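Suppose you are handed a protein chain with no further information: no name, no annotation, nothing but its sequence. What can you learn? This example shows the usual starting point.
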Amino acid sequence: MTLSPTHFDYSAAAEIYPSRARNSRRNPVGYRRFESAAEALRFAIEQLPIESLSGAYLEIGEDRYDAREMRALYDSADYPLQRSSPVSGAKRG
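A reasonable first move is to predict its three-dimensional structure. Written in structure tokens, the prediction is:
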């Protein structure tokens, strides 16, 4: 999919499908649904373990975005939510 943050609907309902991290049995993270893509992106970038984010994807309707695309959408000037401070690890990736 061609990524165009200026045409991305951050208010659309979205789903996150994290990858299953090998050798990580503590706190497994599974599928989650969000009211908005902005909330889903914040969760993916700020809270998912790096090993789960690397193979994760965001799904909005029929469109899918991989971890690289999620990062670009989160970093976009159009991203509508407040980001966490860099101290919290939000600059991963």
